[in-house]
Structure formats: structure tokens, C-alpha cells
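FORM 7B: Structural annotation worksheet

SECTION A. Query
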Amino acid sequence: PFGGVAVVCAGDFCQYPPVAGSALYSLVSSYANQTEQEILKRLGRLSWKTVNTVVTLSKQQRMKSDPEFGAAMQCLRTQECTYEDVDLFNSRV
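SECTION B. Predicted structure
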């Protein structure tokens, strides 16, 4: 679907949804009376659904020199912070 060109998509599903519009993985309204924006949403969703290989990176490389902070950031990302994590963040302000 991309003219023989390899496409690499990167993202973080724990982030907030897009400010304007909708995420590519969200459902699209019915076919009737589509606006140009809805057609673009549908094309984006169809492109997203053609992805057949997913590689999930699970090892934190950016903060490997500070594993305590890296672990706290992972907890923050998944909304599982402890009071110790909060204390650590506050100590760096």
C-alpha cells in the first residue's frame, strides 16, 4: 500500500490521544455523507490496519545509567507511581 517503500511507524500508546482529530486505531463513522476529513480518517485507519509486523521495544536504553529513575518513569508512564517515585521526582525539581 506504500508503493513498495518500507515504512517505520513509532509511537507510544500510553500517550494522550491526538489533540485534533482521532487516533488511527479508532473507529471511523459510517460511509454515508462523509466529509473530506472523514475520508482521510478512513484512509489512515485502513493504512494502519495493513501493518502486519510489530516490534515492541521493552528495554529502556535512555536511562540505563540511572535505573532507579528509569523504573520510576516506567511507573509514571503506566500510572502506577508509588510515593517513593513521587519523592524521587520531587527531589529533582
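SECTION C. Observations
The radius of gyration is 19 Å. DSSP finds three helices and no strands in the chain.

SECTION D. Sign-off
Analyst initials: ____
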